[in-house]
């Protein structure tokens, strides 16, 4: 089990690792060693996460999540496989922690009297500036 928060932990068997060749610096090693990591985590079928966390995670993941609900994290920042593996895992944990946090409910508020007065004053100033930009009429 991989601890995420005090209440959440991931089962390691839910993670699928693929190792691919990475582009970029590394010399001839680039053509020989599969140092880039692709971490796949099936969010929809995960038994480790509660439903509300799954929903927030899928929303947060954006284009990293497939139509089937699989979260894909590419890690190719480092030149060795183990560092990229740790990087991918840390990014997944950070994303799940962010999804696990309860969003605060927005408390409906009204603008204060001072804010309303400031808005009206700014509107009056802008109207005056625009009035002076107009071409003169025959009444002016």
Write up what this structure looks like.
By secondary structure, the chain is α+β, with helices and mostly antiparallel strands. The chain has one domain (2-100): Double Stranded RNA Binding Domain. Helix content is 40%, strand content 16%. It is built from four helices and five strands. It has helices at residues 29-32, 51-61, 81-100, 113-133; strands at 2-3, 9-10, 15-20, 36-42, 70-75. A three-stranded antiparallel beta sheet has the order 3-4-5, covered by helices on one side. The chain has a two-stranded antiparallel sheet with strand order 1-2. Strand 1 (2-3) and strand 2 (9-10) form a beta hairpin. Helix 2 crosses helix 3. It is elongated and about 85 Å long. The N and C termini lie far apart (80 Å).
């Amino acid at each position: 089990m991989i601890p995420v928060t005090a209440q959440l932990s991931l089962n390691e068997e839910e993670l699928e690792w693929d190792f691919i060749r990475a582009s970029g610096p590394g010399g001839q090693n680039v053509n020989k060693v599969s140092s880039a990591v692709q971490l796949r985590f099936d969010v929809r079928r995960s038994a480790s996460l509660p439903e509300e966390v799954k929903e927030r995670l899928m929303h947060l993941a954006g284009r990293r999540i497939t139509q089937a609900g699989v979260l894909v994290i590419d890690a190719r920042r480092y030149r060795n496989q183990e560092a990229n593996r740790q990087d991918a895992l840390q990014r997944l944990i950070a994303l799940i922690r962010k999804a696990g946090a309860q969003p605060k409910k927005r408390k409906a508020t009204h603008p204060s009297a001072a804010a309303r007065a400031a808005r009206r004053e700014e509107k009056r100033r802008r109207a005056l500036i625009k009035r002076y930009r107009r071409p003169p009429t025959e009444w002016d």
